[in-house]
Amino acid sequence: MNIFETLAFYFENQFVWNAVIVGVLIAFCSSLLGVTLVLKRFSFIGDGLSHVAFGAIAIASVLKLTNNMPLVLVVTVLCAVLLLRTGQNTKIKGDAAVAMISVGALAIGYLLMNVFSASSNISGDVCSTLFGSTSILTLTETDVWMSAILALIVLAAFIFFYNKIFAVTFDESFSKTTGTHVELYNLLIAVIIALVIVFAMNLVGSLLISALVIFPALSAMRVFKSFKSVTICSVVISVVCSLSGILISILAGTPVGSTIVAVDIVVFFAFFLAGKIGGRS
Amino acid sequence: MALLKCENLSLGYDGVEIVTGLSFEVNSGDYLCIVGENGSGKSTLMKTVLGLRQPMKGKVEFGDGLKSNEIGYLPQQTPVQRDFPASVWEVVLSGCQGRAGLRPFYKKEEKALAAANIGRMGLDGMEKRCYRELSGGQQQRVLLARALCATGKILLLDEPVSGLDPMVTAEMYDLIKKLNRDGITIIMISHDINAASKYASHILHIGDTLFFGTKAEYLSSGGFSAKGGDVK
Asked: Is B112 within 8 Å of B106 (Cβ atoms)?
């Protein structure tokens, strides 16, 4: 069987289609706000939130919730708001607060899983939550629809608030003086990021989500020069990388999350070189 | 009534007052320079006027139909902006965000206004250039064009020439003076007492001694010599 026949063979299965569709949708959403996060120096908020989501999943499994999504969503969104608040507070500086919350959530999550776990394979559970798992291949139709709806919400919010998001990202103080509710838009950005992260955990696991958010934006910034073109390019990069990452992982039997991130890294270096050669002064 | 009136302001951080009993007013067409040493509260004053922070005491009032969101602000550049992928057009157009309110997209008139202000600042043909690749003086002119999109009345400039070389500094001052002659009220924070004496109509000195008055009054009060300034 050549590559195409193998792929065709796999794609006869509905679950492979589901995985690919959800993967592409998640990649799409996560990259939209990546540019803003990178430029606002919020890169690590994505990382911190994903660890919080891990902690929330641990709590949900201890409580034996059958559907852990609502709890995880609420906890993560709350933490997103909290992190943004502390970012403006002078007592604990932004990056320290992120580090504190993320490491704390990670530790408590693992502790809870260990102490209360009903499962016989704790390290397997933990590993799949952290690095993504085969759960991408066990998605139900409901999951696919949920991702589609999430993608639509994120896209709609992004387009509707595009000009404001740009203004707030470029210059908060100026935006404030023109009467723009900067805090509100920061909150909006944080909530959307929290939503995206919770859904993206299915794909790449909580440790690797930041890569999905940050790499496409950083790659696009090497080459493109306006906010709009950087945003569009990072979405394209993200979708292409995730798609090829998923296909490679199917063919080569590698873990989905890390394969996608590996592709993202390769593309980043390609864009880095292109930027250097293209003469970005 | 004055365009802007500050009465008995007290400014400071964390409960410690830096400046007390500050009163001044700015009338339409004035060119006010705020001078004073580092840490004397110049930037705090500016933020208070802009509504970015509350005064500890006293009040800031706007008159002549000026709304608090109709002030054109030229902030000092942040490190984020130096590496920001945005075109000149995008940056200038974002000056119209106050006019747009909750409307998600900019109207034709707003785009025309942005285009006009790009021309006014001598940036024609640079709309598609990347902001981070411009020279310091060009970047300041882009930000000035953006501020002009937010206002037709009053500009607040926070150290507009910091980091610029002498030639570009002179150009920048001339440009600001020209806007002032066109009827735009200017409030400028400056280190540069010489420039203040050359261009401003009024001087506000904050620090150990408070002074507010016209340039002539400031000169005769010996403010320049007391501060080691050299009047040409």
From this structure: no
